[in-house]
Every structure is written in C-alpha cells, then in structure tokens.
Amino acid sequence: MQHIAEPVVEVAPADARRWQLRDGELARIWSRNGVMVAKVLISDGQRRGSLFVPMHWNNQFARQGRVNNLLAAVTDPHSGQPESKQVAVAIAAWLPAWHGELFCRQPVPLPEWLHWRRRAAAGVTHLSLAGDKSPRAWLTDWCQRQGWQVQVAQAGVLWNLLAWHEGALMLGWWSDAREPVVESEWIIAAFSSPPPTAELRHALLSGRKGGDVAPRGRIICSCFSVGERGDRRGHRRGLPHAGRAGGEAKMRHPTAAHVSRN
C-alpha cells in the first residue's frame, strides 16, 4: 500500500468540476457531526456523487484531519461495531490566504486558528501550515522569547524567516500563496551543519539552494515581472466569498463520504 503523507479526499472528476475543486489543493468537508480538512485528489476511479477519505489520521498528525469528525457516535447495540462506513457530507474548496512550511529543533506550540499537518522528518519537527490570519506576529514573538536571533526576508505579504542561536539554526519558516517549494532534505541538513557563508545563508532563507527569496512561478506578464503565483494570489483574494456561497448550496445537496478501513 502506498504511503499517504497527509489527509486526502478522493473526488470524481465530474464532481471536482461541479464544486470547483482543484487537484492538490485543500478542501473542507463537513457533516451535521463535524468538519475536517483534506487535500483534494481527483481520481478517475472514484464514483461520481461520493467521496473517499482514508482513516488513521489523528490529532497528533493533523488538525481537523480525522474523518471520524464527520461520523455520528452510533454503534451496533449487540456487537458494539461503530457505524463508520459512510455519512452524508458537503464539500467546498478552501483557499487559505497563505501556506507555510515550518522546520524547528523543538516542538512549537500552535495557535488554534492554524491548520497544520505533520511531516516525516529526522531530527526536527516539520509542519505544513495554512491559514487566513497572518502568523508573523505569533511566530516572530515566539522565536524572540526563546532568545533566538531572527532573520527575515519579505516580498509583499509573503515572508520567510530563519532563527539562529549561537550559530546554530533553530527554526526555519517559508511561506507562499500556494504550498512553498522548498528543498526539505537540504533544510533539515542545515540544522546539523549550518551554511558556512553569507551567500549560502541567503539561499537557505529562500528555501532552495539557488532560488529567489520569494518564488514567483512561471512569468506570465513580462511587463511587470508578474509570476504565475503572484497572479493567482490576486485571483484568490476574490474567491473565498464565492466559495462560501457555494458552500451553502452544497449543504442542501450533500454527497456521501466512504471511509477506508485499511
């Protein structure tokens, strides 16, 4: 069985078009019992009119990643078997204001308003974060209270941060309008072997060995050097309102979520 790095929801292509869901982006799924957040996986093998969500994610690995949040606490009166096969749900795209990748030597206390997923990483804590409220004040303040020296690079509303203590890398943060493109193995190695030169430290602040501090994606407007990601940021600012309206309609036309028991 293939390892799945984070909570996902499989959606039929026709349903993805109907609900304006994009492969690889986040969605909120809710029922009368609760809500969860998962990454959309558009699959030709998924039956139209239903969703598939794997089990086994708990609160140690993701916030709002448990499919059991959607299910009623109903059991068979004789065997005690839970009714965990299916439930009527609604789904809507969630387009956060930002995404971030956080690496740290020690566990980081996270605010309730952050969405997060834990990544597998040796020797450090690696979290993928997303949200609508800026985390900059919270994260900068927490680093400074640890007595760490903070190094920040900013491009518009997006920003990256490194925190140092006595020459050792303590924390790294990279953000973008979409999931940041960073070289995770290189970043993790920097915790045990810090970059020896200012040039390499600047590259580390970008999250990529030779990249710009703020990734722009493909250039789609050469007049103003606008990258694909910058353009999508502009489009996304207008989408959440439409998404909320669509979400209300979806509540009146629920689909079914099938839960894997593997």
UniProtKB/TrEMBL annotation:
Record carries keyword Oxidoreductase: yes
GO MF, one example: oxidoreductase activity
One term under GO cellular component: oxidoreductase complex
Domain Molybdopterin dinucleotide-binding: 6-87
Enzyme Commission number(s): 1.7.99.4
Single GO BP term: cellular respiration
UniProt-recorded name of the protein: Nitrate reductase
Species of provenance: Raoultella terrigena
